Amino acid sequence: MIGILLVSHEPLGTALLNCTRHIFGRLPVQLAALDVIPDEDPAGALEAARNLLARINDGSGAIVLTDVFGATPSRIAIQLADPNRVYVVAGVNLPLLIKALSNRRGPVDELVSTLVQAGQGAIRLVSGEDVSGDQGVHHAAR
C-alpha cells in the first residue's frame, strides 16, 4: 500500500492526522506527519522526514504531501523525492489527503495523477443560498 507522509508547517500535519482519525475512526496505517517548527534546523528535519518515510514505505511507493510550495517544509519534502518511488505534491488539504488515503492500492504514479487533477478542481466558491446540488456552486476557475 502506498505510504503517505505529510511535511508541513507546525501544526498542520498533526491536525490533518487527527482529522483522518476522526473521519476513519482510527489512524490510517502507513500515514505519518512531520510538523516543521519555526527556526528548526532543516538538516535535522530532513533526517526526521527520511526516518518517517522509511517507516511508512513498504516498497509500494510513497507520496509526500506538503503545504506551501517553496517554503521550508516543501524544500525538505523535495529532497525526499525519488523518481517512480517517492512523489512530492504541494498544496495539501483535507480533501486531498482523504482522496489519497482512499485510493492508495494502485500504482503510485497513477495516484499522483489523480491527486493533482482532483486538487486542481477542488477549490470552489459555495453560495449560502444553496445547501444541496450544484446550484450556487461556482468553480474558482470561471
Keywords for this structure?
two-stranded antiparallel sheet, globular, alpha/beta, Rossmann fold, disordered C terminus, single chain, 142 residues, 4-stranded parallel sheet, 5 helices
Describe the structure.
- α4 packs antiparallel against α5.
- By secondary structure, the chain is an alpha/beta fold.
- A four-stranded parallel beta sheet has the order 2-1-3-4, sandwiched between helices. A two-stranded antiparallel ribbon has the order 5-6.
- It has a single domain, classed as Rossmann fold (3-Layer(aba) Sandwich).
- β3, α3 and β4 form a beta-alpha-beta unit.
- The longest helix has 15 residues.
> How many angstroms separate the termini?
37 Å
What's the CATH superfamily, by name?
A: Phosphotransferase system, mannose-type IIA component
Q: Overall 3D geometry? A: globular
Largest sheet: 4 strands, parallel
Instruction: Examine the secondary-structure arrangement and name the CATH architecture.
Output: 3-Layer(aba) Sandwich
Q: Return the domain count.
A: 1
> What is the tally of beta strands?
6
Tell me the number of helical segments per DSSP (H or I, 4 or more residues long): 5
Task: Extract low-pLDDT stretches.
Answer: 135-142
Mean pLDDT: 91
**Structural class by secondary-structure content:** alpha/beta
Beta-strand fraction estimate: 15-25%
Give the CATH level 1 class. Answer: Alpha Beta
Briefly note the CATH topology name.
Answer: Rossmann fold
Largest sheet, order of strands side by side?
2-1-3-4
**Topology pattern, helix = H, strand = E:** EHEHEHEHHEE
